[in-house]
Design brief:
A hairpin with a 3-residue loop joins strand 2 and strand 3. This protein is 50% helix and 16% strand. The strands form four sheets. Strands 4, 5, 6, 7, 10 and 11 form a six-stranded antiparallel beta sheet that branches. Strands 2-3-1-13 form a four-stranded antiparallel beta sheet. Strands 8-9-12 form a three-stranded antiparallel beta sheet. The protein is elongated and about 95 Å long.
């Protein structure tokens, strides 16, 4: 029959921890062998250096760009850079006229072209849509059953735009886990297979869209307001109002006449026809695809739906500025030196080493040999965090910034704090007179609640900071949260199992004076003292007596008036009985 005692359980947990290290190391080694990863973490702009580009906006015609439009252009560039997989990029405006883009390393030609390109917004009719996931290869339509056009397309909504190549692309496209690879900009005269990203309330959608019928440059204005009801009353829902210029008004009227016919026909049958929808496309991604519920003759459509005030404003801004014919010309490009960041990194690492040395000295002074468990736990947590950062740099292009290094340094104290809480709980149990094996188990039951609460607070703070902050501060929050998770893993899978094993060794189990867990040095008095004698209350350690005295004082302070009078009456009765017995 298998043995399931604490010692064997501890060994199994330590074995699982070792397996985790082996798997992480093997994964990283595999990336290094294939040339896709490195043993060293990727460094951010402030530590590695990189490229800084100053971009000057170019506007078609004689129109001037204002600050609000420039800020929207910066937001579009930031989305493009983030979408291309470049991490820790810094994008800002300069003098209210230029845009400064700083990227780690040397940007590729594709990234440069992506940054310089103007925002491409247009309106395309929806031909069909489907499930966002890619269809498995074995379930895709056979070659001889693919859709084959029977005639030339009569309009942009005609299903004859769906050729076998378009259908294959539609079935293979994955909108749930979209590929980070940047595709060439689509041809406005051809159909487009693309996605609408998922939101908090709606899933992702995959579309086949017809050719462009209205360009985004034809939008004169876009606002967001609360939708009015049939009687003119204001409702609680939000909508986006678009105003087209005179040239696009006639085009949009013709388009909505056709789409509204599809909508009306579907309503009579109680179904939905995707061809009644008109997709708003920015950089070949669908922002929204509303239905044509009516014919728009004045060029002023209103988009309604499940909008909040924030989402309505976001779509309005994208419609207003996303269509601007703004492109950027690289005025200057220079390499950024990492000398300043390197100096700061060396100073930060020096501060971290000093802090780590102080933790080691304190642990050895306060806990003697038990402090070696703290040092070993810190080493395990450090290696685990290092492997995680290196793997994330390979798989997610995460880059370690100076703020991230600061988060790692702060985590040293937070990690050591978990061990101190546990060790002190064990010492309290020893002072109560328990043996070391029992003290380890009981101390762990009391300590793990405190450790879990502490790490939950750390994780919550890191999450809030990550989602609220911008720039390098997010790097600090990320490493802070990552080290909190590593700390939990180490405490549960290394520190506690290690103490379970050490408690059964002669050095610690017999309370050697240098073990840090000597009952004599802690002032512990055993409950059973031999020869039928038990420990008296006066023989309890001073710490325990003080704690019990404090608890009694607190209980007395919380007494009600009736309880206090009853206690005083009992004391008087006891005193009276004692006096009578003496007589």
């Amino acid at each position: 029959m298998a043995r399931t005692g604490p010692k064997n359980s501890a060994r199994r947990v330590l074995t699982w921890l070792g397996a985790i290290f082996v798997v992480l190391t093997a994964v990283l080694a595999g990336g290094v062998v294939t040339g896709n990863a490195s043993w060293a973490p990727k460094l951010a702009l402030d530590l590695e250096g990189g490229t800084q580009m100053i971009l000057a906006p170019r506007v078609e015609g004689s129109s001037e760009i204002n600050e609000e439009q420039l800020n929207q252009a910066v937001a579009i560039i930031r989305q493009r850079v983030d979408g291309s997989g470049v991490a820790e990029a810094e994008i800002s405006t300069q003098s209210g006229r230029n845009v400064v883009v700083s990227l780690p390393g040397t940007p590729s030609k594709e990234t440069r072209d992506l940054i310089q390109a103007s925002a491409d917004m247009n309106f395309r009719p929806v031909i069909t849509y489907g499930d966002p996931a890619a269809i498995p290869a074995e379930q895709r339509t056979p070659e001889d059953q693919l859709n084959k056009p029977t005639a030339e397309p009569a309009n942009a909504s005609d299903v004859n735009w769906i050729t076998p190549e378009v259908q294959k692309e539609f079935e293979a496209l994955d909108c749930v886990n979209p590929s980070p690879e940047k595709r060439d900009r689509s041809d406005p005269a051809k159909p487009l297979v693309t996605c609408e990203a998922a939101t908090a309330t709606t899933p992702a959608i995959k579309y086949i869209l017809g050719p462009v019928e209205v360009k985004g440059q034809d939008i004169s204005d876009s606002t967001f307001t609360q939708v009015q009801g049939a009687q003119g009353s204001v409702t609680n829902s939000w909508g986006v109002n678009i105003v087209f210029n005179s040239d696009a008004t006639a085009k949009f009227k013709a388009v909505t006449e056709r789409l509204n016919q599809f909508y009306a026909a579907a309503q009579t049958q109680g179904t939905d026809d995707p061809k009644s929808q008109f997709a708003i496309v920015l950089d070949d991604k669908v922002l929204s695809a509303p239905r044509a519920l009516a014919v728009i003759t004045d060029g002023k459509p209103q988009i309604t739906g499940n909008f909040t005030q924030a989402s309505a404003k976001a779509l309005s801004d994208q419609l207003r500025y996303g269509a601007l014919p703004i492109s950027f010309e690289i005025q200057s490009q220079e390499q950024i030196s990492a000398t300043l960041g390197g100096d700061q990194l060396r100073l930060g690492l020096l501060a971290g080493m000093i802090g780590l040395l102080l933790v080691v000295v304190y642990s050895l002074f306060q806990y003697r040999a038990l402090g070696l468990v703290t040092i070993a736990s810190l080493v395990v947590a450090g290696v685990l965090t290092y492997l995680a950062i290196a793997i994330l740099g390979w798989t997610e292009n995460y880059r370690l910034s100076l703020a991230g290094v600061a988060g790692l340094i702060v985590a040293i104290g937070q990690t050591a704090d978990s061990f101190i809480v546990y060790f002190e709980r064990i010492r309290d149990e020893l002072r109560e007179g328990r043996g070391l094996v029992s003290a380890v188990e009981n101390g762990w039951k009391r300590a793990k609640r405190t450790v879990l609460a502490s790490k939950a607070v750390n994780l919550l703070a890191a999450l809030v900071l990550y989602f609220v902050a911008v720039g390098n501060v997010r790097g600090f929050a990320f490493t802070l949260g990552l080290t909190a998770l590593a700390d939990l893993l180490v405490v549960f899978m290394f520190t506690h199992p290690m103490l379970q094993v050490l408690a059964r060794t002669k050095f610690f189990g017999e309370g050697h004076r240098f073990s840090g867990l000597s009952p004599d040095r802690l002032g512990a008095v055993p409950l059973y003292r031999g020869a039928g004698r038990l420990r008296t209350p006066e023989e309890k350690p001073a710490v325990v007596r003080a704690r019990n005295t404090g608890a009694a004082a607190e209980a007395e302070r919380r007494m009600t008036i009736a309880e206090r009078r009853l206690a005083e009456k009992g004391q008087l009765t006891g005193t009276s009985n004692g006096t009578k017995e003496e007589k």
